[in-house]
Amino acid sequence: MKTIRFTDGTTVPALGQGTWMMAEDPAHRSDEIAALREGLSLGLNLIDTAEMYADGESERLVGEAIAGVRDDVFLVSKAYPQNASRDRLQDACEASLDRLGTDRLDLYLLHWRGRVPLTETVEAMKRLVASGKILRWGVSNLDTEDMEELVASGGEGCQTDQILYNLTRRGPEYDLIPWLAQHRMPVMAYSPVEQGRLVAHPDLAGMAKERDITPAQLALAWLLARDGVLPIPKAGSIAHVRDNRAALDITLSEAELRRFDTLFPPPRGPEPLAML
Ligand code: NAP
């Protein structure tokens, strides 16, 4: 299985599992837990969650899904910007750990930039690493200038920037993704199938049909074909998890990659980082 290397040398499978919108509806809970467990059994051991998702209930659901297999999971959660301060980050992290039923996170992210100075967030993250509550840290939704500032604020230990990146959101290719590559930080690509909208895209559907695969698989295969990119699709059913896992086995031809560039053109100049 293709793997992705974080800045500190740790490797994880190149395809992870997202959890936004999970635990919103009790009627879907058992399917969502079954989907995450299926993903783990298929080797998709990175699970991404956040204190924000379902107001903490997504973390609780993940905790239930990984009970008994915690050590096999690479667990990622995120802190609200207002909690990413010297005074509040430790409490936010401990509350996440409690909901997740674990004593450590493998990766803890600043969800997006707020009013707390980055120097403070970096300091608070480093303290959590020192105490063993998190093994590494990173950020999300930070554009190139913010990343420059982060590194200048003592944040060289940042492991990743989790950003909106998919076939219809190629803006970061112009400057942010090259910057991250230069700093050996992989990209965690969120909303890799554009929250499901790409599945219905007629051009993508046409290309997928020619190969007898699904549009979701094709959208993921395109991301997986790129260096240092780790897509984290959210799948609420076993069928979707299996579908997504199979994207790791798809190889795209040069001709297909050129066709993607025609149908979903790369950026021609800088674009502000979009977020959902
Ligand atoms: P996404 O993964 O692009 O799309 C999820 C949607 O696609 C769901 O409706 C899902 O349906 C559907 N889907 C998944 N696999 C499919 C398949 N094989 N065939 C057909 N439909 C499929 O969007 P996302 O949830 O926004 O992003 C993924 C993860 O990234 C999130 O869950 C979260 O962990 C993270 N995220 C982070 C941020 C951030 O600010 N850092 C923002 C957004 C998302 P079912 O549920 O029915 O399977």
Automatic annotation (TrEMBL):
Segments forming domain NADP-dependent oxidoreductase: 15-262
UniProt cross-references to Pfam families, sorted A to Z: Aldo_ket_red
Domain of life assignment: Bacteria
Name of this chain's protein: Aldo/keto reductase
Organism from which the protein derives: Sphingomonas sanguinis
